[in-house]
């Protein structure tokens, strides 16, 4: 069973690599090597890196040697682990956060992967501005697009929903809960972000394809596409006053770089490599671009470079003479979100077990906060804690807590909380590790947390809701899979990514089933926690991230 669509460009980029001579690695046929490359790209590279040097996941080079600060050395590698041990790890997962692949890959594929990762990593080709230009498709020039909204849909309450394994995006009308349109996009769209105007949806696929969708047509229409590289995760527009939607930035995992485009046509303008030194002073050949966000304080983007731990503030006022401020934080930067004041961006340095906070006004690191294992905020959640004032919350992939960090506020009534700022003020207990996303809304008194990566079905298929008025109370568990009314399936149906509607009174959860199983979007009333609606449709296949236009446009969380 192989996951299907992977864009031809991304695949040919990876498959173009020749077979190298291997010492000590088990024999493989050419066909097995091709299968290994495809599965590695689709399933493994995100955590372990194309060059397999490790980040969220472990180093998977055939042989590695580490020298500690005290001069002692440690050696290891996939060759040392051998095929049998690797098959076990891939099949059953590990306590360190690696999920079990025995319900995703066949036995033969697990065996192929166990042998493939004992080979020297294949290095895919680079991707230049010329390659980007060649991939650029302007399907509808800006002056030929509608001059006003041509439909009657309340665009602010539209949800863009990733249909992960189909290479498609569903646009659902949040008012009527009807599917408005399902569009082709890149493979396994990672995130959708909105234009400052709320008219356009930008999506980026894992295969590096950016799709620009115009919501003003009778039905949503793709007006431009462009490739950023072979593997990407992030995209955002310029949002500062006077620059709204003028530019778009996209970050790639491979090659490690970010690209700047025209915001309305996607015309490629510039590529900047992120290769360089880590905060520990070592050169890294694959420092991937993780989250990117448009600053509210200045005409800048916050670009988080995973492996180096460097946070770049990219000033977009003069693209030809680009100025960048590079802020040292901690290695393995991943996802993050704004604090309540939208002055500080908090980003997880996940495998360093830290949260880094950037002050976008001063352009400096505001804090580096130690947390429990592998924080994974998504965008996090902001609320006023009854005892500690404004806090930002993150869940953890690697531990059974939700961490609450006190954040600064210029409001007079919050002055008394200053002494707590940048401290972990509370850790809410969860039923286990494996959380990916937490969410709340300014109008809500609830904090929602999923647990899709927990190995227990009863946790992975449920969400937990905390009462913000009394955080010492145990959370309410909602069994999303059961509430969907769908029959139980062999593969886990992971309940993930709570997202509010525009009004802030409903929470939408993805019930992410196997590729051939019926999945669903399950909607709850935020006040009563009662089931409100289940959206099932043969087109809703492997739904994951959901992005409400208004909340994404205004960073409401
Ligand atoms: Fe994500 C955000 C990277 C796996 C769903 N994910 C992000 C961001 C990064 C990232 C860098 C922040 C983007 C930004 O804000 O600019 N994700 C990665 C990986 O490297 C990783 C671990 C492995 C991979 O191969 O991609 C990974 N992510 C997943 C999944 O398996 C998820 C659960 C399902 C899916 O669709 O692939 C998933 N990631 C998401 C979602 C967001 C996200 C829904 C956006 C959260 C938000 O609310 O903004």
UniProtKB/TrEMBL annotation:
Signal peptide boundaries: 1-21
Protein name: Nitrite reductase (NO-forming)/hydroxylamine reductase
Broad EC category: oxidoreductase
GO molecular function: electron transfer activity; heme binding; hydroxylamine reductase activity; metal ion binding; nitrite reductase (NO-forming) activity
EC number of the protein: 1.7.2.1, 1.7.99.1
Keywords annotated in UniProt: Heme, Iron, Metal-binding, Oxidoreductase, Signal
Domain Cytochrome c: 31-121
SUPFAM superfamilies in alphabetical order: C-terminal (heme d1) domain of cytochrome cd1-nitrite reductase, Cytochrome c
């Amino acid at each position: 069973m192989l996951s299907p669509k992977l864009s031809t460009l991304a695949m040919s980029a990876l498959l173009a690599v020749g077979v190298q001579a291997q010492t000590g690695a088990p024999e493989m046929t050419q066909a097995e090597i091709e299968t290994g490359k495809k599965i590695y790209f689709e399933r493994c590279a995100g955590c372990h890196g194309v060059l397999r040097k490790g980040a969220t996941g472990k180093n998977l080079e055939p042989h590695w040697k580490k020298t500690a600060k005290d001069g002692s050395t440690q050696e290891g590698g996939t060759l040392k682990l051998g095929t049998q041990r690797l098959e076990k790890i891939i099949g059953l997962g590990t306590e360190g956060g690696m999920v079990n692949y025995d319900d995703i890959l066949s036995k033969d594929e697990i065996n192929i992967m166990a042998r493939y990762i004992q080979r020297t990593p294949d290095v895919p080709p680079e991707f230049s501005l010329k390659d980007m230009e060649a991939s650029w498709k302007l399907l509808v020039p800006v002056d030929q697009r509608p001059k006003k909204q041509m439909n009657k849909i309340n665009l602010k309450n539209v949800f863009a929903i990733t249909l992960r394994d189909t290479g498609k995006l569903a646009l659902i009308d949040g008012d009527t809960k009807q599917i408005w349109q399902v569009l082709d996009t890149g493979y396994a769209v990672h995130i959708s972000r909105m234009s400052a105007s709320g008219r356009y949806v930008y999506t980026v696929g894992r295969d590096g394809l950016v799709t620009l969708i115009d919501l003003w047509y009778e039905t949503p229409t793709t007006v431009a596409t462009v490739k950023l590289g072979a593997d990407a995760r992030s995209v955002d527009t310029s949002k500062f006053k006077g620059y709204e939607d003028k530019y778009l930035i996209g970050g790639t995992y491979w090659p490690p770089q970010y690209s700047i485009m025209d915001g309305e046509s996607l015309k490629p303008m510039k590529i900047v490599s992120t290769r360089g030194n880590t905060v520990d002073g070592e050169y890294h050949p694959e420092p991937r671009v993780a989250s990117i966000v448009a600053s509210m304080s200045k005409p800048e983007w916050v670009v988080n470079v995973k492996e180096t731990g460097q946070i770049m503030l990219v000033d977009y006022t003069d693209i030809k003479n680009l100025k960048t401020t590079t802020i040292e934080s901690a290695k393995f930067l991943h996802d993050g979100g704004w604090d309540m004041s939208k002055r500080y961006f908090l980003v997880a340095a996940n495998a360093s077990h830290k949260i880094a906070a950037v002050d976008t006004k001063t352009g400096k690191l505001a804090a580096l906060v130690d947390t429990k294992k592998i924080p994974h905020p998504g965008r996090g959640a902001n609320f006023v804690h009854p005892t500690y004032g404004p806090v930002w919350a993150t869940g953890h992939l690697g531990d059974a807590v939700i961490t609450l960090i006190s954040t600064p506020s210029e409001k007079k009534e919050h002055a008394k909380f200053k002494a707590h700022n940048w401290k972990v003020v509370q850790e809410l207990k969860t039923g286990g590790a494996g959380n990916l996303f937490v969410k709340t809304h300014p109008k809500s008194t609830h904090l929602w947390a999923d647990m899709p990566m927990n190995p227990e079905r009863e946790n992975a298929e449920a969400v937990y809701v905390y009462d913000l008025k009394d955080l010492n109370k145990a959370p309410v568990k909602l069994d999303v899979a059961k509430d969907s009314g769908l029959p139980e399936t062999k593969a886990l149906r992971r309940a993930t990514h709570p997202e509010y509607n525009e009004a802030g009174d409903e929470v939408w959860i993805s019930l992410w089933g196997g590729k051939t199983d019926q999945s669903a979007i399950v909607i709850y009333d935020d006040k009563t926690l009662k089931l409100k609606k289940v959206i099932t449709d043969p087109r809703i296949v492997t739904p994951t991230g959901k992005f409400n236009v208004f909340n994404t446009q205004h960073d409401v969380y």
